[in-house]
C-alpha cells in the first residue's frame, strides 16, 4: 500500500473524538482508555472525549481543531452512521475540510448496547476506532452532485389520507397525480355513516373533499388504476400507471344512471363490493351515489355481452352520450414525478380466522364494517339496523379486539376499534332501542374528546363487560337462550363466566396491512415492519418519511390510524413533498461506482447485474461506463467485475483493506 | 396399508366395547389389525402432567416396538382408538422430531432397553383410517342395515383434533359425520362437537365434571339426537355413566344412549350386537330401521 497523501497538506493529520453518549457508551466502554489508545495510532494528532459530540459544543470542538490546523481528517466514535453521519460530515465541512474526510466508528449500537463485558466492549471499540483511522487516512475528497427536482407529485391511494395530501399539494400550485385502484376515491371513510367522537356525518365532511379533488385544476385523478412500475430516484421518478378499462368513457359519462336502469338485468343480482355483499348491483354500476368520479363501469365477469357476446346491449342504446365502449383496452400511462406519497390504506381482519366467534356460520354475526353500512342512511337498509331475516334486534353484543391484541392473530392494538365500537353502540341503541353489550379487554379512548364520548355511552346505559369473549354459539342452557346467539365470556370485574343471549353480534375487526402491501413495498423499494405495515424512517422523529428518499407515507398503510391521525400524517407527508420540490434540487451521494477505463475488458458482466440500469456499454471504445445520477452505490458491479475495473467512491479496495488491517492489527 | 394396533389400558378395561367393536369392524372390512406385542402404558394424562420426559419415554417405547414389529414393511400405521393414547403418541412423535435435546434423552432411555426408534411410525386414529384410507364410499358398500332415520350427535372430544389437527379441522371436524352419512344416518349440526366432556374432573371435582357432561347431553337431546357417538373411552364413560345422577342434580330427565362410533359402524354392517359390545351399554341403544326398505347407506349431505 502506498503512503496516503493529503493533496493539500502532505501526510494526513487525524482527529479522533470518542463520545460518551451520556452513559449509553460510557457505561460499557472505557472511553478514556480508547482516547489514550487512539493517540498511539498512526497519523492521529488529536484525540478527545466528550459527553455528547453531536451537541453544538461537541461539533465546535471538531471545527476548532480543523481551523487551528491541528487536523485535516476526522473520526468520530459514537453511534450509527444512520443517526449522525450527516451531522459530522456537516461539521467537518463547517471546519473547512472536505466532508468526506470523515469516518464514523459505531461503538454504541455495535458495541455498548450489545456487549455485556466491559473489557470486551472496550477492546472492540478500540478495534473499530483503529479501523476507522486507517480507513479515513485513505479517503479522497469527493463532491456531491446536484440534480433538479421534478415538481410533480404522485399520490398512491385515494382514501381520506391520499385525498387530503393531494388537495394540500394541489392548493400550493403543484401538480398531483392521484392514483386509486378502486373505481371511486373515498376509501373506507366513504362507507361510514357517522364519525367518532363528534358524530358528524362522514359523507358531509368527506364528499366535498372528493369533489374538490375531481374539479381541482392541479389534480389528475386516475381511479380504477394501479402503479405498475417505478424507476428513478428522489426528484426524478419514472412511474408507469396501469389504467384498467371501465368500458365506459370517463370523459363522456355524466353519471345519469340511464344505462344502469336499462341493463337487461331487471334486478340487481351480483354482490355489491361497496356494501360488502349486503346488497346487490348490476353488471353495469356506479359504486355509490357520491362516487368520484361519478362514472359508470362494467364488470366483465358478470356482463352478458362479455360472457356470451349475445347481449341486446340495451345500455348502449340508453346512453345518449355514447359513452359505453366494449372495446376499451387497458392503458399504460408514463409519468415523471419528483416526490411520491403512499397512502394505500389497510384491509380489515378476516373474521372467519377466529371460528369460535361464528362469523360465516351464524347469519346474525356481522363485522363492524358491515354494521357501518347498515347504519348508513345510503346503505342497503337505508340506515336501519336489521337482522338477516329483516327483524329488529332487541339485544346486540359488540366484541372488541377481534384480530387485535391476540397472539394467535395480531399482537398489536388496532387503535380505532374501541372508539368505532362505542360509536356503533350509540348508533345501534339510537336506531333500535336494543340493549347493547360491549365486551372489551381495555377501553382505549386516548384522543381529543374520546374519553368524554365513552363517558356519554356509560350514561346512555350501554353495558360494558370486561373480558375477552370465549365463544359465540347457539347451544343453550336455559329456555331464554333458545333461538339466540349466546356470547360466553369471563366478566373479569366480577370474576364469573357469563352467558349473554343476544339477537345480533358485531365483531369489531382489527386492521391489517392491505392485501397488496407486499407488492407495493417491493415496487417502491421501501421496507415494512414485522406485521407488514410500511416502515417509517424513524418511529419518533421521522414518522412520515421512508428509507427511500422522496417517498413518504400517509395514513393507515404505516399502521392502524383513525381519521384525525390519517389526515394529520397526510398533511405532514404533503409538507415533506413540498419541501423537496421547493428546494428545487437534490444532492446525490458521491458513493457511486466508476470504471477505470484502462482495466475494463468490455465483458459487460456489470451491465446486466446493475439493478438500477445505471451502467451502459459503448461499442466505440469497448468500455462500460456508470451514470452517477442513477447509481445507488450498492456495489454489486464492483464485486462482480472480473478485472477489478469497477471501483466505488468511499469503498475502494484500498480503503476497505486498510480498514480491515486497522481492525486486525492494533489491538 | 398395514396396520398395527395399540389398545392402551382403557380398551382392555372400561372401554372393552370400543375394542370389541373396532376389532369386529376392521375384521368385517377385511382390514387386518395386528396388536402391538408387549405394549405398555401410553404415558397419557397423569404422566404428562407430572413429568413430560417420563411420558415421552413410555410413549417412545411403544413407537420403537411398533417400528420393530413392522420390520421392513413400508407404509404402516399404528391404529390407536383411544383419544388420549392417540394424542400422547402423536405429541411424542412431534417432540422427538422438533426438539433434539428431548430426542437425545429419549434415545438414551430406549438404548438402555436395547431399543431404538427411527421415527417411521405413523400414528393413526381409526376415524382417519376408515374415512380416508378405506373411504366412505367403500364403507357404504358394506352397509347391510342402513341407519336410515337415525339422528346422531357426532362428538369428537378434544384430544383427536387439538392441539394437533392431523386429519381434520381443529374447530369443526367432520370425519365422523362423513362416516355416519355413509351408514345412512343423519347428523345434528351442533356447536359442541369438540367441547370438553369433563375429562378426569368427573373423578376429582365431580360437580364441575358432571356439569360439563350435562351441557353436552342436554344440547344433543334438545336438537333431537337419538344417540351420541364418541371416539374416546373417557368421553363415552363420562357421558354415559352419570346420566341418573345428572337427572337428579339438574332436575332434567336425561336419557340418551352414548356409543362408540365403531359400534354404529358395526351395527350398520349387520355384525352381531355381542361382537360390538352392545351388551355393555348402560343406556341401551335401540334402533328400528325406518319402515321403507333402503339399499345401502349413502353418504350425501354434510
For the termini of chain A, the CA-CA separation is 21 Å
SSE-based structural type of chain A: alpha/beta
The two chains with the largest interface, and their residue counts, are: A-B, 8 and 9 residues
Rg of chain B, nearest Å: 19 Å
Average pLDDT for all residues of chain A: 95
Q: What are the salient characteristics of this protein?
A:
heterodimer, A: 667 residues, alpha/beta, Rossmann fold, FAD/NAD(P)-binding domain, five-stranded parallel sheet, 28% helix, globular, disordered N terminus, B: 302 residues, Glutathione S-transferase Yfyf (Class Pi), Chain A, domain 2, 2 domains, four-stranded parallel sheet, 13 helices, disordered C terminus
In short:
The complex is a heterodimer of chains A (667) and B (302). By secondary structure, chain A is of the alpha/beta class.
Amino acid at each position: 500500500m502506498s503512503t496516503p497523501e493529503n493533496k493539500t497538506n502532505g501526510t494526513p493529520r487525524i482527529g479522533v473524538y470518542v463520545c460518551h453518549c451520556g452513559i449509553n457508551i460510557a457505561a460499557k466502554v472505557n472511553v478514556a482508555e480508547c482516547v489514550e489508545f487512539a493517540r498511539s495510532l498512526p497519523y492521529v494528532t488529536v484525540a478527545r472525549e466528550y459527553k455528547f459530540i453531536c451537541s453544538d459544543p461537541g461539533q465546535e470542538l471538531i471545527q476548532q481543531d480543523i481551523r487551528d490546523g491541528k487536523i485535516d481528517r476526522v473520526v468520530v466514535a459514537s453511534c450509527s452512521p444512520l443517526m449522525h453521519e450527516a451531522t459530522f460530515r456537516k461539521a467537518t465541512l463547517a471546519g473547512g475540510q472536505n466532508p468526506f474526510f470523515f469516518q464514523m466508528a459505531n461503538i454504541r449500537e455495535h458495541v455498548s448496547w450489545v456487549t455485556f463485558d466491559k473489557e470486551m466492549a472496550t477492546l472492540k471499540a478500540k478495534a473499530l476506532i483503529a479501523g476507522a483511522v486507517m480507513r479515513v487516512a485513505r479517503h479522497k475528497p469527493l463532491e456531491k452532485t446536484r440534480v433538479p427536482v421534478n415538481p410533480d407529485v404522485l399520490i398512491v391511494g385515494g382514501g381520506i389520507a391520499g385525498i387530503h395530501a393531494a388537495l394540500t399539494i394541489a392548493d400550493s400550485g403543484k401538480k398531483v397525480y392521484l392514483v386509486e385502484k378502486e373505481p371511486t376515491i373515498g376509501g373506507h371513510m366513504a362507507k361510514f355513516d357517522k364519525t367518532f367522537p363528534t358524530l358528524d356525518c362522514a359523507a358531509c365532511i368527506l364528499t366535498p373533499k372528493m369533489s374538490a379533488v375531481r374539479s381541482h385544476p392541479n389534480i389528475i385523478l386516475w381511479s380504477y388504476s394501479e402503479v405498475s412500475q417505478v424507476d428513478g430516484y428522489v426528484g426524478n421518478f419514472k412511474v408507469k400507471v396501469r389504467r384498467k378499462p371501465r368500458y365506459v368513457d370517463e370523459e363522456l359519462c355524466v353519471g345519469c344512471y340511464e344505462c344502469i336502469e336499462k341493463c337487461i338485468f331487471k334486478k340487481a343480482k351480483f354482490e355489491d363490493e361497496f356494501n360488502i355483499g349486503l346488497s346487490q348491483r348490476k353488471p353495469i354500476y356506479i359504486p355509490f351515489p357520491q362516487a368520484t368520479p361519478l362514472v359508470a363501469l362494467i364488470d366483465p365477469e358478470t356482463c352478458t355481452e362479455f360472457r356470451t357476446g349475445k347481449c341486446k346491449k340495451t345500455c348502449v342504446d340508453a346512453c345518449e352520450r355514447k359513452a359505453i365502449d366494449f372495446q376499451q383496452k387497458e392503458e399504460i400511462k408514463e409519468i415523471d414525478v419528483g416526490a411520491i406519497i403512499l397512502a394505500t390504506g389497510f384491509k380489515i381482519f378476516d373474521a372467519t380466522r377466529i371460528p369460535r366467534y361464528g362469523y360465516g356460520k351464524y347469519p346474525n354475526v356481522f363485522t363492524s364494517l358491515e354494521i357501518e353500512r347498515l347504519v348508513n342512511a345510503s346503505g342497503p337498509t337505508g340506515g336501519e339496523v336489521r337482522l338477516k331475516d329483516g327483524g329488529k334486534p332487541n339485544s346486540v353484543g359488540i366484541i372488541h379486539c377481534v384480530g387485535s391484541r391476540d397472539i394467535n392473530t395480531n399482537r398489536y392494538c388496532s387503535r380505532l376499534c374501541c372508539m368505532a365500537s362505542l360509536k356503533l353502540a350509540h348508533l345501534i341503541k339510537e336506531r333500535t332501542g336494543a340493549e347493547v353489550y360491549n365486551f372489551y379487554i381495555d377501553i382505549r379512548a386516548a384522543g381529543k374528546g374520546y374519553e368524554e364520548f365513552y363517558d356519554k355511552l356509560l350514561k346512555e346505559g350501554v353495558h360494558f363487560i370486561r373480558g375477552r369473549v370465549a365463544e359465540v354459539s347457539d347451544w343453550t342452557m336455559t329456555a331464554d337462550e333458545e333461538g339466540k346467539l349466546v356470547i360466553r365470556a369471563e366478566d373479569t370485574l366480577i370474576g364469573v363466566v357469563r352467558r349473554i343471549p343476544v339477537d345480533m353480534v358485531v365483531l369489531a375487526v382489527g386492521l391489517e396491512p392491505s392485501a397488496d402491501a407486499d407488492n407495493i413495498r417491493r415496487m417502491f423499494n421501501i421496507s415494512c415492519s414485522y406485521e407488514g405495515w410500511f416502515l417509517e424512517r424513524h418511529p419518533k422523529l421521522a414518522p412520515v418519511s421512508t428509507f427511500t428518499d422522496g417517498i413518504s407515507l400517509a395514513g393507515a398503510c404505516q399502521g392502524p390510524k383513525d381519521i384525525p391521525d390519517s389526515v394529520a400524517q397526510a398533511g405532514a407527508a404533503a409538507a415533506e413533498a413540498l419541501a423537496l420540490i421547493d428546494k428545487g434540487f437534490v444532492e446525490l451521494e458521491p458513493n457511486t461506482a466508476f470504471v477505470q477505463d484502462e482495466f475494463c475488458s468490455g465483458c459487460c458482466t456489470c451491465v446486466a447485474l446493475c439493478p438500477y440500469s445505471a451502467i451502459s456499454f459503448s461499442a466505440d471504445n469497448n468500455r462500460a461506463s456508470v451514470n452517477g445520477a442513477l447509481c445507488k452505490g450498492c456495489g454489486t458491479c464492483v464485486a462482480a467485475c472480473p478485472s477489478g475495473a469497477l471501483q466505488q467512491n468511499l469503498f475502494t479496495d484500498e480503503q476497505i483493506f486498510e480498514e480491515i488491517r486497522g481492525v486486525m492489527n492494533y489491538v | 396399508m398395514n396396520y398395527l394396533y395399540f389398545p392402551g389400558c382403557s380398551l382392555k378395561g372400561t372401554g372393552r366395547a370400543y375394542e370389541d367393536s373396532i376389532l369386529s369392524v376392521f375384521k368385517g372390512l377385511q382390514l387386518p389389525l395386528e396388536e402391538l406385542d408387549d405394549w405398555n402404558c401410553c404415558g397419557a394424562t397423569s404422566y404428562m402432567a407430572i413429568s413430560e420426559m417420563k411420558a415421552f419415554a413410555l410413549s417412545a417405547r411403544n413407537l420403537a416396538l411398533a417400528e420393530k414389529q413392522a420390520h421392513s414393511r413400508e407404509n404402516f400405521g399404528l391404529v390407536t382408538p383411544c383419544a388420549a393414547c392417540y394424542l400422547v403418541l402423536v405429541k411424542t412423535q412431534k417432540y422427538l422430531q422438533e426438539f433434539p435435546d428431548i430426542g437425545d434423552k429419549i434415545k438414551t432411555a430406549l438404548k438402555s432397553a436395547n431399543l431404538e426408534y427411527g421415527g417411521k411410525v405413523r400414528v393413526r386414529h381409526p376415524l382417519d383410517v376408515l374415512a380416508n384410507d378405506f373411504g366412505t364410499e367403500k364403507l357404504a358398500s358394506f352397509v347391510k342395515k342402513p341407519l336410515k332415520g337415525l339422528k346422531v350427535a357426532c362428538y369428537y372430544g378434544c384430544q383427536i383434533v387439538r392441539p394437533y389437527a392431523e386429519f381434520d379441522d381443529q374447530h369443526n371436524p367432520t370425519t365422523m359425520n362423513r362416516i355416519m352419512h355413509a351408514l345412512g344416518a343423519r347428523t345434528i349440526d351442533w356447536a359442541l362437537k369438540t367441547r370438553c366432556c369433563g375429562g378426569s374432573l368427573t373423578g376429582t371435582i365431580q360437580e364441575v365434571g358432571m356439569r360439563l357432561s350435562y351441557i353436552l347431553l342436554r344440547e344433543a337431546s334438545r336438537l333431537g339426537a337419538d344417540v351420541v357417538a364418541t371416539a374416546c373411552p373417557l368421553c363415552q364413560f363420562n357421558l354415559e355413566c352419570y346420566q341418573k345422577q345428572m337427572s337428579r342434580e339438574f332436575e332434567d330427565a336425561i336419557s340418551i344412549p352414548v356409543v362408540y362410533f365403531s359400534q354404529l359402524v358395526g351395527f350398520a354392517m349387520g355384525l352381531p350386537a355381542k361382537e360390538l359390545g352392545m351388551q355393555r351399554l348402560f343406556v341401551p341403544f335401540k334402533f328400528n330401521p325406518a319402515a321403507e326398505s333402503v339399499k345401502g347407506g349413502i353418504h350425501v349431505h354434510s
